[in-house]
Structures are given as C-alpha cells and as structure tokens.
Amino acid sequence: MAHILIVDDDGAFRESLAETLADMSHETLEAASKREALALLESMEPIDCVFLDLRMPDGVSRDPNAGGGLEVLEELRNMPARAALPVVVLTAFATSENTVRAMRLGAFDHLTKPIGRDQIAALLKKIELSQSGSRDAASIQPNASLLPDEAREARSAPRLLGFSDALRDVQKSIGRAAATDATVLINGETGTGKEVAARVLHDASDRRQAPFIAVNCAAIPADLLESELFGHTKGAFTGAVSERLGQFARADGGTLFLDEIGDLPWPLQAKLLRVLQERIVTPVGSNAQVRIDVRIVAATHRDLQAEVAAQRFREDLFYRLNVIPIHLPPLRERPADIAPLAAHFLAIAATGSTRPKTLGDDAKKLLLQHAWPGNVRELKNAMERVFALARGPVVVANDLAFLSRTPGSGDTTSGLPAGWLDLPLPDAVEQLERLAIAHALSITSGNRAEAARRLGISRQSLYTKLAAYGLG
C-alpha cells in the first residue's frame, strides 16, 4: 500500500483518481492548490508518490509553459526530506517545453489526461520497482498530447514539434539528459531534426547562457577538420596566416554539437577520443594544452555499431559518445504528427501574408499516404512549396501531386496509428475526436469559439466533449 498525494484544482478529477487509487488499496491525500500541496509536503504526512497537475490556480510564474505544478515540483526538489519523491506530472495541455522542463526537474513521468486504471497500475508498479532499485523493461505509453500554437511562436526558441507517443518519449529523454552534463548521442535519419533536438537539450540545460556551437563533420574537408575543431597557430600550415580559435574553445562553458559524427575520418577519431577523455585540446602547430569545459552532443544518421563492426569507427570512441543515446524516429513511424506538422509549416509559410491557407481533408489523406523519406525537413519544404503555388485558400490533393507515392500507398489504413483498427468503434471514434479537438484548440491558441467553428460543431457540443474527454 502506498500513500499518494493528488494535487489538482479540478475536484472531479481528484475525486475520480482518489477513488481509483483507493480501489487499488492505496491511501490518498488531496490538495487543490499549490499552497495546499506545499503545506502537505512540508508536513509529517507519509507520502510515497505525488500525482501533480501542471496548471495550478495559484502559480506565480509568468512562463506560460510552467504553471503552478512545475513550481511545486521545483520547490519540492529543494526539500531535503522530499527531494527524491517520485512525481508524476499530469496535464491536458502537454507541450515540448513543459515536458522537457518537467523531466529536467526530475519528474518520474509526464502524462496527459485522462489516464486509465491500467495505466495507473503499470505506472505505480514502475515507480515501486525503481524505488527498490530494480529495472522494469515495460514502458508507459502516454496518451497523445496537445500540439501548442506552434505557428504563433514559430521564430522563437527551437522546439521538437509533434504530439505522438514517440516524440513525447524523445522529449522526456531530452529533459532527463538536460539535468546532467553527460555526453549525448542522437541517432536518426536525415531530416528528423537532430540539430533541433540538440538545441532543445542545450536550452534546457544549465549551460543555456553559454554558446551552442554546431559543426558538421561531413561538410568540412578532412585536412581542415582538425584545425576547425582544435584551432591552429599562425604558420601551422600553408594558408594559416593568423591564429585561429577552434570550435572546442569557442564552445567553452557551453555545448558542442558534432553533427554526422559517423563521417569523422579515422585519424581524427583517436584525437577526439583523447579530448573527450582529458578535456584538453592542442591547437595544430602548438604544444600548448588548453583545458576546456564543454558538453558534447553528437549526432549521426549511420548505424555506428555496424560501422564499428566494419572497422570504420573506433569502438572506444563509440562507447565514449554513447553515454545517453536518443533515437529520433522517422516521420513515417509517427503518422499522428504529420497533419499537425503540415498545418504548422503552412502557417509559418503564411507569416506576413494576408492570405493564409488550410489543408483540406483529401490533402491530409495524401500526406498520410506519403512515405516522407526526407522526414520533417521534406514536409516543411513541401508546405512552403504548396503555399507558394496552391491557388485557393484550401490546399487540396491536386496541390500535392508532386509528392511521389510509395508502393502500397493506396492502402487507406497505412497512415493510421498502430492498433486503431483493432479498437471497438466507439473507442476509435473517441480517439479521433480527441485528436481533432486537441489540434483545433492548438491552432486557435485555446479559443474555443474558433475551435468549434473549425470543427463544424456548436460551442456547447465542444464544451460537452471537452468535459467528457478531460480536455477542459
């Protein structure tokens, strides 16, 4: 039996969750505000776990992605007696930013409402095993989160856009990694957003005020790459007319992103390994040793383990880089992100224009059928092209005729999330309605009247569905 604190300003949700936990033989405490939650946490009440709502009514942060819930989590981490308490952050409005921040602050998980009994049981089991020092191979599958109004902040800080389970797992991994200085290796196909992920990681870390320096190891000639990374002295080689500071030194105190690390020439791999081990660089043409304080994030589209087996990549360097591995899934493996991302990029393309465009249903269907070999980058470019060339305010399938169809793309089920067709019809309809409502709210910045108009339903119908699906 566990003692669980439920912190949520929604009385109905608190009561429902408390009843479920009581049925599972757990004891519960309840708090309706940040103030009540902190009072209980500072008391002598036995508490083994906290279910914490993201948006609390008495939060004081001006950060729209913070909410009083994250303030509670931040203060809890400063309480010596409660610092290690497992906290599950719950929200109906998950974003990349609040997911990453919650995980960076040490949240055990970050889930979207509503959460079912089986999910709660699996989560508590996972917490129990982690607290006892065991490892649980099972993973918690959170519900799809809301995509925020990305277009409104399109030119602000880099973000990993998407609301599929696969992207949420990546966001959580980044949040956990941001709390450390450990080396991170990001793997993913071309166009999946590896540099964006690295920038999000940097911005969420304690090094965010220091430089973020990106180096593409495949784009620089091999004979210049050593100088680019480590710097050189004047006269070190032909053309070295002045001293040059290397990218390691430029990134001192911050993050050095080594993109396409799998293309690093073999001789440089040994030198990089030494730098990672010693944290000292020696400029070309010099005997001076320069100590550096840099967080390394590397990325590649190659299978480095296969490269090691083929003796094209050093095994010792691979293990030095692969401290925290993060895999970015290709777009074809997260179809739930395709239409929202397309709408987002279409909105970005319309920035400054008085003639915005929207996606028609037949266009969305075609987007789901495409294989997207170029991933998110290809989708972004496609939407820029569509905005420039489509004649009407609604993008139709004919406007996307330039997309090459893959074998089997005529299968109208290929774009659906895995398992949807195995659900009972009412459950499948509910999942589709939740996604449609979430998307409508995200692109209207939470304007329910406008969301109802886009969905083609009355405001009252929307309110009813928001309450039924726990999205209010």
From TrEMBL:
Record bears the keyword Cell wall biogenesis/degradation: no
Residue stretches making up the Response regulatory domain: 3-128
SUPFAM superfamilies with a match to the protein in the record: CheY-like (SSF52172), Homeodomain-like (SSF46689), P-loop containing nucleoside triphosphate hydrolases (SSF52540)
Start and end residues of each Sigma-54 factor interaction domain: 160-388
GO molecular function, one term: ATP binding
GO biological processes: phosphorelay signal transduction system; regulation of DNA-templated transcription
Gene3D superfamilies: 1.10.8.60, 3.40.50.2300, Homeodomain-like (1.10.10.60), P-loop containing nucleotide triphosphate hydrolases (3.40.50.300)
SMART domains, per the entry: AAA, REC
Keywords: ATP-binding, DNA-binding, Nucleotide-binding, Phosphoprotein, Transcription, Transcription regulation
Statement: the UniProt record of this protein carries the keyword Cytoplasm: no
Modified residues (4-aspartylphosphate): D53
PANTHER family named among the record's database cross-references: TRANSCRIPTIONAL REGULATORY PROTEIN
Name of the protein described by the UniProt record: Response regulator of zinc sigma-54-dependent two-component system
Source organism of this protein record: Caballeronia sordidicola (Burkholderia sordidicola)
